[in-house]
Predict the structure.
Amino acid sequence: MVSATPLPILKDNYAWLLVDAASGAVGLVDPAEEGPLIAAIEARGGRLDTIFLTHHHADHVAATEVLKGRYGAQVVGAAIDIARLPRLDLAVNEGDRVPFGASHAEVLFVPGHTRGHAAYYFPAGGVLACGDTLFSLGCGRLFEGTAEEMFASLRKLAALPDETLVCCGHEYTESNLRFALSVDPDNPALQRRAEEVRAVRAAGRPTVPSRLGEEKACNPFLRARDAAHFAELRARKDRF
Ligand SMILES: [Zn+2]
């Protein structure tokens, strides 16, 4: 069983602390600021087995070398982007299984935000580390990929079980909520999520992880009919 805890870093990023209960293995997704992440690792006894990288942007990888040097963690990232990622110990492709303690991650190749974006799904625990592909109530910008690629990537993630925990790379939920309400104001599931998001943020807590089933009911980018509709929504959000 894998648990996932968001660790706020930088301005609005989340790294994710993963713990496999059976073995005690500890992982980090997208470590980009060493101070708070070392503090979190030390608070758990100073063990870090695996670093999972979703994509090459600095706000997802910047502390990788320091943490690997300090704890000897294995660094996992997409083979296709090996030249732009920190040095990988394990270069992975779509469908690969990455051992993590007594559990494992399944690799999902999800291009769109970048051309080498990977997501990691841990079936034991239903944890999805999806970086900047899927956000709560939103999705990543298309920096390197096409709308068709991103739409296909989101469809791939949406095929996971509804109870999957969406562990994304940023706390963008409030601004995503404003856009979602502008395109889908009469959606009762979205209205319920809006109340929850406002209460959680007012209390200063993370709005994530969310549940994939809730995203499918509320997130306009997962509700897009087809790639053309998705492209139109993404362009509108870029100007919103
Ligand atoms: Zn990014």
Remarks:
- The longest strand covers residues 2-9.
